[in-house]
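Incident log, structure service

09:12 report received: a user says their structure output differs between two submissions of the same chain.
09:20 pulled the input from the user's history:
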Amino acid sequence: MASLKQSLKQILVNKQHRLYEKEAASKNLTYDSWIKKQEEKAKDDQHIENIDIKILTSDSEIPKNEREKNKNDGKNADEYGECQWIEVFDKGNPVQSKKTIISIYASALYHDIEYHLENNIAEVILIKFYRGECNEISYPLIDKILSENEKIVLIYGDEDIQNDGVRENPWFKPDWSPDRFLSCFYFGGLVAVRANALKETYGHCKEKGILDGEQGNSFEGAAFEAGKLLYLLFYEMLKEHHAFSKGHTISNAVVYHIRHVLFHSTKNGYEQIRDLRLPLSCENEDKEETYEDAVEIENSLETVTAEHHKRQAVTLSIIIPSKDNPEVLFHCMDSLLQKTCSKHSFEIILVDNGSGEENKAKILDKVSGLNQMQAVKKGQVRKKGTLCFEGCTYVYHPMPFNFSSMCNLGAANARGKLLLFLNDDMEIIQPDWMDLMVEKASLSYAGAVGAKLLYPDSDIIQHAGITNLRVGPAHKLQFLHDEKIHYFGMNRGVHNMLGVTGACLMVAQDVFDKAGGFCEELAVAFNDVDLCYTIHEMGYYNIVRNDVAFFHHESLSRGKDGDSPEKQQRLLRERDILYDRHEELYGRDPYYNPGLMTDMLQTEYLPAYHYQVTLDMPWSEPVSSDRIVRRAREDKCLVVGMECAMDIYKWRYGGLPKKGRIKGRQEDMGYYFQGYSFIIGSDNACYKKKLLLKNRESQKIWGLTIESRYRKDIQDNLKDQVNVELTGFVARMRWGELPEGVYQLGMLAEDACSTQKLVNWSNWVLEVTENGR
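09:34 re-ran on a clean worker, output below:
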């Protein structure tokens, strides 16, 4: 009998496996099929279906007498030649709208750059930096952008790898990022420039001798040298056209990023350009001389007195909010004073919102000792390169925890031209951190400047900039090892990001004041994000230095956001405030390509084809589930990860309907749920799941039918678990289907091959109000 039961169960298991494998195969999209569909849509959206191209010749010289023919003319032209002359024209009006483009490899241009620039008759030069071919949509898109925007002098786009007709490994790039450009040639394999602008800059550079030593005569193996010269030439051209200045609007744009794949390389493009560097002088050349006095003192004098610095405004005020954490605070301060090596003067300001008397006394003793040490040095000769510490101020102001208020109070007591907001659980591990961050914060276009934060005594990333996804602000790369290079260098060099964490945020005092400081309505979460978004909206560029690292003993003082229903509700309320204040940024981030996933809090940078919300699933009707849940065993092995539970209109547009917002449609009148769920140590193909909503007051439980979604991220992270590809889930429910109240979200999992039923609850809650919202 036991053997028969086992055989019958195996039949059921095999059936579930077949169904599971079929569903998984249907939902596992490939990049190749997905991107081709996206490009067909782009042709319609961009109105380029009537644009055609004609290869005139693949010779370096185009014949001036059109009656003369070259062996490479027209249909005989070599599609993969070093140089191509191409006409782009509208098939409806091919004469009036005809444009000539030259497409040339960087090495060929480098070999005889003066000839190509002097004798060029094309309006646009397309430069290929490594082997590959242009996407057919690249020519009309580039022509369209340059025709519509006279100020734009340079265009770059996204790229992927194509071998044997199959496309893979896309490099989806950010919009114009001046600091990333200064750090790395992220434009990649294809760059389009206006010929006249490049020619003019080359002439200026030649007159000034800027390119001396950058040019060689050997064509063989010249790709890297060609890259170096053109990188520097682009830098000079963009500087002449004021690309390194405030402002993000298209009307002021000098550099334009086309958010489409324009180029197919034969191998990883980033690996081919990652070692290209600008001369060191370029990174500092655009700096305003805001701190000229301090820098000149350090650079020109062998020694300087502490008294002299006391009379000057300090370069940097380091503001540390803290309460009842003296050991953690002192560890931070000691690492700051012992491990920092900087030419800049700085002060420390401690802001305490109500430590107990014992801890307050400890902090006062520490501050007194530091100030006595600084006073002893007053009037003494300070050797060049030693620390210029200008004292510590203790601001004691009892009040409920409000990170924004504490930081604003610290800023009000600061003397520095720059402010650094630093958590009390930070640990300095890199001597030159201050000089490197001040270097960026001093730039005229710089907003907030942050650094890479690592978990203590490890190379595991905690923070490398804030990305603005549809589901909210996110820390991409969190929990990944820094030893590995992630997504085309996103954890290397310097990047422009929409935000940086308030755990370590440097900003100029005047920029901070113009932004209005931290929003005190946001007491706990998103206050740093809000400040960065405001600074971005003012036209500044926020910056993350991945070449500066700290250890961060994260949230030791107050725990983690969202680890209880109450904290999760507070988090969602503050998220709503954030997007009410920044409506135009909801679901948008110029430094995060829309070709990447935006609909889930995935730590890695993954192309959007892995997961996209479509909201085309059928409506789920809640079913009373008290009886079946009572028969289920509550088990922590059933993991429930909620990522979204909110009003559909708010999901689409960032807030509730109001004047000036898009009018709600019938399909917006409901709730959207998204997350993942799996059973640890079990065969997940055998389980059917339902989303549960439990009224926290009446304890009444309702169940919703869900649709599974393919989750490659879960599969990759749970290699020791069985059948976890389809652990993602989504559902939507109309307004008015549930009584008013606050509902806790959970999951019911039923084994289709046995009688086992499991249940577990998340910390997420959904508040249903009388009007449905």
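09:41 both user submissions now match this output. Likely a transient worker issue. Closing.
09:42 reviewer note: Residues 482 and 673 are 33 Å apart (CA to CA). Confidence is low (pLDDT under 50) at residues 60-80, 287-312.
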